[in-house]
Amino acid sequence: MACGYAPPVVDAWNFTGESVSLGQHDGIVTLVQGSAFCISGRSGDMTAGAPHGLFFRDSRFLSRFELRLNGQRPEPLASSTPDPFSAVYVSRTRPRAGQVDSTLLVFRHRWIGRGMREDLVVRNFADEPSYCSIELVLEADFAHLFEVKEGRAGGDPDRELEVEEDDGALLFRVRKGSMRRSARVSFSRPAQLGTGRAVFEVIVPARSEWTTCVQLTPIIDGEVIQPRYPCGEPVSRAEPMERMARWRKQMPAVDTDHEGLRRAVASSAEDLGALRIFDPDYPERTVVAAGAPWFMTLFGRDSILTAWMALLVDPDLALGVLQTLARFQGTKVDARQDEEPGKILHEMRFGEAASLSLGGGQVYYGTADATPLFVMLLGELRRWGLAGEVVDQLMPHADRAMEWIEHYGDRDGDGYVEYQRASDRGLVNQGWKDSWDGVRFADGEVAKAPIALCEVQGYVYGAYLARAHFAHEQGDMALCDRYRAKAHDLKEAFNRDFWIEERGWFAIALDAKKRPVDSLASNMGHCLWTGIVDEDKAARVSAHLLSPEMFSGWGVRTLATNMGGYNPISYHCGSVWPHDNALIAAGLMRYGFVEEAQRVIMALLDAADSQGGRLPELFTGLDRGDFPGVVGYPTSCSPQAWAAASPLLFLRTLLRLEPWVPHHKVWISPALPPEIHRLRVYRIPLGGRRVGVQADDGNVKVEGLAADVELITVPRDPLTATD
Could you tell me if 601 and 475 lie in one domain? Predict the structure, then answer.
């Protein structure tokens, strides 16, 4: 996905064409569990030719699943998702000729997890028995996720597809070279089977019902993958159900008079719980998939920022992310994958891998920001009370990351981390705005690599400070002084070279010729978040971020309306991203721009409220005055990890919660906007304890802090990170 249009490049990491539209999100239902997800219409049908289907480990194991009752499609009435991985679809048959009402209702209870289970129920509300011909039309094309995303499913001539009957079940198979995939669809009642069809001819008694259970079981290279919800077993005992129950139980409780905030936080908890991935090789380590439908896998940058935002609810998620990314840290120079020693991965994909462990995936390293963010997150997790012995286990990986920053990341020795792909297979842009034209000059010219992004320098600044703090704790004052000096020098150079005085904002980047890329963009808000911005420049940055050109009324745009290349319905050139706004709001609050931070947060909460409490990956940058509601972006992921986590960072930002457990200090100084009079958050995990914060119309109460922790009730100064 990218701004504007360019001829498509078919490549796993660097597709620049048009992604298929998912349509309006209220017209589709997305279910998520681990590395499995399902997309269907409101009826429950997965329609041929649409980006629907049941996906598992980047392959589509079911591409069509349509229900016919007496030769007709039932009329959808309602759908509900009681859990992120389950849904109930309710339909009715069309009324008979001359009748107003139908007497047959269809319920489809669906659960996703290493396959799919659907309990199909037909209820007859008539006073006499009803004949029903129930037909299921099924197809499995085994298309790779990228083929579906790019609208080219079915275009592989080397893929051999077969379907056959197998002991009362339908068995779909594909062969391509040495790769073998199968999908076995079985039924709890005998069915009349044909090619891609299962038919049940039944008499449903009066005032009664008929039911069957449909089970899809994936088979990878001959290995049968045990579904999470086998037919005949109680779904309440399934592992995803039990994990979600434990997740919900440990979530902090939020009590507030602002319903939009409460709903957004509740939605965050549900979505993050569903997007968690559990590696069978390391089941104690939890990571998070980037988002459904296109990114149900591990991403470096996304997982780190999501974990940072979610510290308020689960620091263990951050630890699992760090441990997993450390496991796959780069070890060699490999131009094909943009790998370098010490580098943190960008993305993992599975494709034809047979293994269910993360270690079975293919890793791509083309990102400039995940490596410094890795060190930043380790430093932040230590502030939240991560044990010193766990820090010691991860410190060698942090040091390898620092070596990458200083040697491979700084390509020309000018003190800045730049990126340039090592081959034409890699991503052209390797920051979070990674579409091919996501980094532009004010006149619309696309910047050329090597590119040094402004926010990446902020992340590097944060990494230097984090490493200095670790050195201080270890008593290595020489190393501490070295990294403090590097942070000082970087900040001084950054505020000199990236600042555009005549415009009053920071360049989004320096290009290959070291020219400031002078467009007004949202990236500099991340620089406020990291603290690299000089205080004498912060007010002008804040003013530009909240200017009419940048602020849509629903949030801060990625690119200002008066910049060349601005397009409110593009991916990175004028859209609004919730995670971007969450970091901007945190940065504004850090520098004392309280009203501005509150304005951003309340705008995003309004946007979430207009969409049932859930924030998508992004939405269009159209002005709030142009249309009464948020206008969605057609290929946006939802649920998406860092969008889901954004309300949690909003919550932390409003509480102005900044812990420093190793130094026995915590700053808590709530700054609630006028719309919120009461905010109480209980069971915040902090230093091995559960802490509660109550803010009621200016009165603040904190409970549960350890006796040796000093509570500081004034805001933390933006420069205290360097102390």
Answer: yes
The overall average pLDDT reported for the chain is 91
Tell me how crowded residue 664 is: count the other CB atoms within 10 A of its CB.
13
Selection from 276-285, 342-351, 410-419 with the highest mean pLDDT: 410-419
Supply the CATH number for residue 87's domain. Answer: 2.70.98.40
Own/partner pairs for 697-705, CB < 8 Å, 24+ apart?
A: 700/668, 700/669, 700/670, 702/668, 705/666
List alpha helices for 498-593, DSSP H: 524-530, 535-545, 578-590
| pLDDT digits 0-9 by tens, 493-515 | 999 999 999 999 999 999 999 99
Q: Beta-carbon neighbour count of residue 331 at 10 Å?
A: 12
Please list the residues that pair with 108 across neighbouring strands. Answer: 89, 120
**Contact status, residue 506 vs residue 498, Cβ threshold 8 Å:** yes
Instruction: Name the DSSP class of 671.
Output: -
**Site of tokens 């971007």:** 580
Q: What's this model's pTM, rounded to 2 decimal places?
A: 0.91
CA angle 14, 17, 19 (to 5 degrees): 100
* Whether residue 305 sits in one domain with residue 271: yes
Contact 326, 393 (CB under 8 A): no
State the average pLDDT over residues 613-618: 94
Distances (CA, A) of 29 to 34, 112, 632: 17, 12, 15
CA gap 527, 587 in Å, rounded: 7
pLDDT (mean) for 693-705: 93
CB neighbours of residue 700 within 10 Å: 15
The strand pair at 197-204 and 208-220 is best described as unpaired
Tell me if residue 105 falls in helix, strand or coil.
Answer: strand
Query: What digits encode the pLDDT tens for the residues 444-466?
Result: 999 999 999 999 999 999 999 99
In a domain? residue 10: no
Could you give the strand order of the β-sheet that contains 59-62, starting from the edge strand earlier in sequence? 28-33, 36-41, 53-56, 59-62
CA atoms of 430 and 557, how far apart (whole Å): 20
In SS3 terms, 34-55 reads as CCEEEEEECCCCECCCCCCEEE
Residue 122 backbone dihedrals phi, psi, to 5 degrees: -115, 120
* CB 273 within 8 Å of CB 266: no
Q: What whole-number distance in Å separates Cα of residue 466 and Cα of residue 444?
A: 36
Instruction: Look at residue 239 and tell me if it is in a domain.
Output: no
Distance, CA of 156 to CA of 154 (rounded, Å): 6
Say if strands 253-256 and 276-278 run parallel, antiparallel, or are unpaired: unpaired
- Of 202, 233, 264, the last residue of a domain is 233
Name the pairing type of β-strands 169-176 and 499-500.
Answer: unpaired
Residues 222 and 266 in one domain: no
Q: Checking DSSP bridges between strand 223-224 and strand 253-256, what pairing results, if any?
A: unpaired
CATH classification of the domain holding 333: 1.50.10.10
Per-residue confidence band for 352, with pLDDT thresholds at 50, 70 and 90? low
Cα torsion through 372, 377, 383, 389, rounded to 10 = -100
Pair 226, 343 in one domain: no
Domain residue limits at 446:
251-696
Class of residue 659 by CB neighbours under 10 A (exposed 0-12, middle 13-18, buried 19+): buried
Give me the number of domains the chain comprises: 2
